[in-house]
Amino acid sequence: MFLKRLCLLLILTVNLQRYSIAQPSSYWQQDVDYLIHVTLDDVQHTLQGDIAITYRNNSPDELSLIYIHLWPNAYKNTKTAFARQKLESGSIDFYASKDEDKGYIDQLDFKVNNEPATLKYDEENPDIASLALPHPLKSGETITITTPFHVKIPKCFSRLGHTGQLYQISQWYPKPAVYDRKGWHPIPYLDQGEFYSEFGNFHVFITVPDNYVVGASGDLQNPSEIEWLNKLSEDGKNASYVAADLVFPPSSPTTKTLEYKIERSHDFAWFADKRFHVAKSAVALPQSERVVTTYVYFTNAHASEWYKACDYVNRAVLFYSDQVGEYPWNVAQAVDGSLEVEGAGGMEYPTITVLSGKYDSEMLDNVITHEVGHNWFYGILGFNERSYPWMDEGINTYYENRYMDTYYGDRTLFGLPSQVAKVFGVESGDADDVLWTVNQAVVNQNKAQPVQLHAAKYGTINYGLFVYAQTGFDFRYLADVMGQEQFDKVMRKFYKEWQFKHPQPEDMKLHFEKETGESYAWFFDKLIMEARGPDYSISKFQKGASAMAVDIKNNSDIPAAFSVSLMSGDSVLRTDWFRGFTGSQTIYFNYKPDWNVTHIKIDERKTIPETKRENNTIKTSGPFKTMEPLQIKPFFTAENPDKTNISYMPLVAWNDNDKWMAGLGIWNSTVATPMFEYVLAPMYSFTAKTVVGKGSAGFNLYPENSFIDRLRVSENFKRFSFDELNVVTLEDQLDTLAQFTRFETKGEIDFRKRSFTSKMSQGIVLRHLFIYENINGYNFDDVGKILPFDARYAINEITYSLKNKRLLFPHSLHVTLQDVAGSQKLFSEFNIKINYPKSKSGVNVRLFGGVWLGDPAPAEYGFTLAGVSSPYDYEYDQMYYGRNNNDGLLSRQISRENGFFKVPAFSADFVSDNFLGAANFEFVVPKTPVALFVDLAYFDRSATFIESTYIDNFQYDGGVMLQLVDNVVEFYFPLFMSPNLEEQFPDGTKYADKISFMVNFNAMNIFELMRKLEL
Ligand SMILES: [Zn+2]
To answer: 629: burial class by Cβ within 10 Å (0-12, 13-18, 19+)?
Structure first.
């Protein structure tokens, strides 16, 4: 595949490059200037234009071709890199789109210095082509590349697009790929993964109907248009905005041509809408006092927040100018648009940024500031965002966080009041603490990815967690190590030296080292390259009269700088920073004899991106010096690294046998998943007058660098009452309450996936079950003597599972070999969704096959035709509202096992001790919870099986089902069934007695969901 080839090329060139970066004087970059004329057709949604590109080859190499990006072609068909990524991330919109809503660029006729030149499209990517130059372009030479072009603007599926007559024109013109010290960078357009472009000057003429308001990169050159924008801005001050009024007015029959110029820019984008309101303002830069004009463009939809948004643009321009370096352009603008980028709230282009969605004023400020900030970290420092997305998103996030801290103080995540957050154990409720907890959980569960990775290699959630949040943490840490003042000084100089250039990670590292005389290999070559952060711990300390020796161990291989503090209670007596190391070392402190040092703490400020903070503290006196105090809190708590966490919650539950139960849930699980984890839910049944409930205790291991991704060994316990037919004498039978007790020893292995973004996973589960049914029953021997009995049996089982959770044709396979009470059975289940054309919805097909390998077993262990009802759940795997109830709706709760017929035919006639094959079909009605079901089965019973009636081998049923939550809460309404099944319901049976249902409690286990984060 093209991308793989490209990556390999990059790896090779990166390695070679190491030797040449020592000579920054050898730096060069290409100059690419553009002259573009373009006309919008707002009926056909097309652009007609021509472009002249002046390309100066500043490289030492002779070029025989130039790679050209034709990114509107990303929307050409469903096979492009963009289309495939969109589908992989779970979005069906583009895949299912009509041809007329797709987009492309055509009518190209390239000439180089007026000589025809051949364009050759990349075989895999229609949005990349190479232009063979008629004559080689020597070092230092300049050529002019011209072509007409025509763009069919797609409906908005990502960034370039139109929503009605709102036009977002970005990544729209033929554009040379970057040629730099590492070679060519031809890259297909992607949703997740941004840009890398050459710097140059743009001169652009845009023709639109007169009544369009246009916001574009750079300086508008038409005085009359500036006048008009001024007037709109003035009018807007007294306007009343009707949010619901979003009608596009008719387009003027006459057109205007707007002229824009921007220098030293690597892109040009424009946005046009006839409905736009305009707000205009200005801000004087702190150093030069040069005035930057600011504009925001917005529709009625979000006018109540947006009319004051110029203030945010102004403040962001000032903040970044002050913190990083002066803004170089004359305008800064923001547009209220509509993006369809996965999870994106905004998108940046030089001098203009587009946002999408509704925000309160704080969030609007936040997003605008982030996007305006990209003028520095992408617009001016032209990073390769595709290969190193942390450089623009992450560093920008660091400054954005500082902006938000400056103007909003400590923020809580999701705006939770800090008191509420505290209840949930999130210390201070600070957004950083919560995000750290989430990151730690992801790290613990082997789901972390390094900060420095190609953009396309991240899972969608990880892209946010690591590229954005983690890089932000890492840079805050770096600033803490260096001291804020020095960090700012170094960054400002970096900005000065590298503005309008293409700095690579190694350039940044070299700059930090040159400016400080310190080595930052631990940061740039280790910390950001590894999925797990450092982990220092204190093993012991020795106290002298005025000095202290502290033994520190680094449990990671990242020699990251760290701080150690002497503490007296909550107050810090002294904090020192130390150079990092691997292995163990002793560090020394001086302290005053009158200091009451109660404990010693690593990373007191919580700025080190440590994966484990539990081992950071040691007490100076008393036993259990490294033991943490208990933190006992109700409900779900976030991990508090200074405490041993225990959560509790009062429980009330009900089933038809135990009736009302009350008890206490106690657990130590957190989203970070402790290695030793327990969840206990003891309850008291007021009817059975006994203790019932559930519990589990287990070890969770997520080994690094192993073919095993997750290993869990657990002991599970369950005890509830059930309805037992109690034979008291030969004549008398009565229903009575008994309890089952179930012990399950379980080993689960999840194998590592082929790649992080792979949708396929595999695993093995081993189980040993011991079931004790406290029946209190009696039997009679030959002479009528009473023999009390209890039932007890064991089950051993191994299951292999494969799951592929892709959007189209997702499927799963489970194969189980089971020994129950000495008999063996083998069964397998295959599920696949067959998508309707261009739909997320489809037909769910389930195939089941089961066979007994040895001696036939008692009926209750057999393969049931119907979904498993409580009397056949001999593994006691499920939770039933009315276990062993004989009648009533609760007796018709079934689970998706065996034949999974929905007709409640639970008689032993429909249980096989030989083999059973079944096929279940669910025809889902799209966008409704309704489906039609059909079940088919072929089964046989051995001769020894008691056959009371003749039953056909082939059976069927069908009807309507309500899927409130797929495979969790479902109701089944049979409409037809095979004659044998029909016979189960004598004349006069009410229809309601044929209805069955599913409530799958196992699928609702929140602890299980926390253990297996899906990212
Ligand atoms: Zn961003």
So the answer is: exposed
Structure tokens at 308: 């004051």
Distance CA 974, CA 346 (A): 50
Question: How remote is the CA of residue 47 from the centroid of ligand 1, in Å?
Answer: 28
Q: How much of the chain, in percent, has pLDDT values that exceed 70? A: 90
**Ligand 1 geometric centre to CA of 198 (Å):** 19
What is the b/e burial string over 362-378, where b = at least 16 CB atoms within 10 angstroms of the residue's CB?
eebbbbbbbbbbbbbbb
Q: How far is CA 716 from the centre of its chain?
A: 31
- Return the pLDDT at 730: 52
Pairing of strands 46-56, 63-69: unpaired
CA nearest neighbour of 915 among 899, 902, 903 = 899
Q: What is the distance in A from the centroid of ligand 1 to the CA of 393?
A: 5
Q: Which of 255, 319, 253, 310 is nearest to 277 (CA)?
A: 310
Cβ contact 421:412 at 8 Å: yes
Kindly write down the DSSP assignment for every residue of 107-164, as one continuous string: ----EETTEE-EEEE-SS-TTEEEEEEEEEE-TT-EEEEEEEEEEEPPBSSSSSEEET
How confident is the model at residue 1015, as a pLDDT? 75
827 bridge partner residues: 816, 850
Q: How many Å lie between the centroid of ligand 1 and the Cα of residue 262?
A: 22
The predicted pLDDT at position 12 comes to 32
Q: How far is the CA of 371 from the centre of ligand 1 (A)?
A: 6
- Strands 128-137, 118-121: pairing is antiparallel
pLDDT of residue 430: 65
Dist CA 97 CA 365 (whole Å): 34
Exposed, middle or buried, 512 (CB in 10 Å: 0-12/13-18/19+)?
Answer: buried
Q: What pLDDT was estimated at residue 343?
A: 66
**CA 884 to centroid of ligand 1, rounded, Å:** 58
241: left (phi over 0), alpha (psi -120 to 50) or beta: beta
The stretches in the chain having pLDDT less than 50 are 1-23
In whole angstroms, give the CA distance from residue 603 to residue 626. 15
Q: How far is the CA of 83 from the centre of ligand 1 (A)?
A: 22
461 vs 439: CA distance, rounded Å: 11
pLDDT 10s digits, 234-245: 998 888 888 888
Q: What's the CA gap between 232 and 273, in Å, rounded?
A: 14
The alpha carbon of residue 297 and the mean position of all alpha carbons in its chain are separated, in whole angstroms, by: 31
End-to-end CA distance of the chain, in Å? 25
Cβ(481)–Cβ(576) below 8 Å:
no
Q: Which residue has the tokens 């007490």?
A: 619
State how beta strands 200-209 and 31-41 pair. Answer: parallel
Q: What is the pTM of this model?
A: 0.88
**Tens digits of residue pLDDT in 584-643:** 999 998 888 888 889 999 999 889 999 888 889 998 887 666 666 666 776 655 556 666
Beta strand 291-298 with 331-337 is parallel
**φ, ψ dihedrals at 530, nearest 5°:** -115, 150
Query: Would you state the structure tokens that stand for residue 238, as one six-digit string?
Result: 């007294």
Give the pLDDT of residue 674: 86
Residue 883, CA distances (Å) to 890, 939, 1003 in order: 8, 26, 19
Pairwise CA distance, residues 733 & 219, whole Å: 93
- Going from the Cα of 344 to the center of ligand 1, the distance in angstroms, rounded, reads 8
Cα 240 to Cα 299, 300, 470, 899: the distances in Å are: 12, 9, 42, 64
Cβ 154 vs Cβ 72: under 8 Å: yes
* Apex 690 CA angle, 686 and 691, nearest 5: 105
Instruction: Write the burial class of residue 814 (CB in 10 Å: 0-12 exposed, 13-18 middle, 19+ buried).
Output: middle
Q: How far is the CA of 259 from the centre of ligand 1 (A)?
A: 28
Helices (H) and strands (E) in the chain, counts: 17, 50
